[in-house]
C-alpha cells in the first residue's frame, strides 16, 4: 500500500536480548545483514504488522517478546531505481517505516528462520547495538541509524 508520495508503509523490528545485544539476520543467499522488517497490509495496525513480520521472518510469537519502544514518526528511505521493477518506477519511491524495539523474553531456541516457504534470513547472530550497521545495504543505513539512535535511550 503506497502513500500519495510513493512510499510503502513498513515496520522495522529491533529485538534486544537481556545483554542489550540485538538480532541481526543475514539475508538469504546474500552477504548483507539487516533487521527484520516488512510491509503493512491493508487493514492491519502497525502492531499487527510487526507481530506478523516477527513470526514470518524469525519465528517468534508475541509471548516471546515485549514491546518496550517505537519510533515516533515515519522514517523514509528511497530505493535505488536499479532495485525497482520497471513497471513500478513511475510511482514507487521507497519505504516509510515505524520501528519497534522489542525485549526478548523467550529463548534463543525460539527463533526459527524457516517459518515460511521463502525465508528472509539464512543465518542470524546477536551483535552489539551498532556493530553491523556497516553491513546493512547502503541505501537503508540512514534510516537504520535514525531508528537505532531514537530507540537507544530506552536501552542505555
From TrEMBL:
Q: Name one GO molecular function term.
A: pyrophosphatase activity
Q: Which Pfam families match?
A: NUDIX
The cofactors required by this protein are: Mn(2+); Mg(2+); a divalent metal cation
Q: Where is the Nudix hydrolase domain?
A: 6-149
- The yes or no answer to whether the keyword Hydrolase is present is yes
Q: Which Gene3D superfamilies does UniProt cross-reference here?
A: Nucleoside Triphosphate Pyrophosphohydrolase (3.90.79.10)
The highest taxon in the source lineage is Bacteria
Query: What is the enzyme's main class?
Result: hydrolase
InterPro entries xref list = Nudix_hydrolase (IPR020476), NUDIX_hydrolase-like_dom_sf (IPR015797), NUDIX_hydrolase_CS (IPR020084), NUDIX_hydrolase_dom (IPR000086), RppH (IPR022927)
Spans traversing the lipid bilayer: none
Query: SUPFAM superfamilies per the record?
Result: Nudix
Could you list this entry's UniProt keywords, alphabetically sorted. Answer: Hydrolase
EC number of the protein: 3.6.1.-
Motif Nudix box: where? 38-59
The family line of this record is: Belongs to the Nudix hydrolase family. RppH subfamily.
Query: What task does this protein carry out?
Result: Accelerates the degradation of transcripts by removing pyrophosphate from the 5'-end of triphosphorylated RNA, leading to a more labile monophosphorylated state that can stimulate subsequent ribonuclease cleavage.
Q: Which protein are we looking at?
A: RNA pyrophosphohydrolase
Amino acid at each position: 500500500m503506497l502513500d500519495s508520495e510513493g512510499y510503502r508503509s513498513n515496520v522495522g523490528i529491533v529485538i534486544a536480548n537481556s545483554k542489550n545485544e540485538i538480532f541481526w539476520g543475514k539475508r538469504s543467499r546474500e552477504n548483507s545483514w539487516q533487521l527484520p522488517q516488512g510491509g503493512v497490509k491493508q487493514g492491519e495496525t502497525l502492531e499487527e504488522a510487526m507481530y506478523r513480520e516477527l513470526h514470518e521472518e524469525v519465528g517468534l510469537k508475541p509471548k516471546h517478546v515485549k514491546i518496550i519502544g517505537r519510533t515516533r514518526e515515519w522514517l523514509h528511505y528511497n530505493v535505488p531505481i536499479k532495485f525497482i521493477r520497471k513497471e513500478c518506477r513511475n510511482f514507487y519511491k521507497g519505504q516509510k517505516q515505524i520501528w519497534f524495539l522489542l525485549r526478548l523474553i523467550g529463548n534463543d531456541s525460539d527463533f526459527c528462520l524457516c517459518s515460511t516457504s521463502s525465508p528472509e534470513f539464512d543465518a542470524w547472530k546477536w551483535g552489539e547495538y551498532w556493530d553491523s550497521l556497516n553491513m546493512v545495504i547502503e541505501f537503508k543505513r540512514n534510516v537504520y541509524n535514525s531508528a537505532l539512535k531514537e530507540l537507544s535511550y530506552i536501552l542505555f
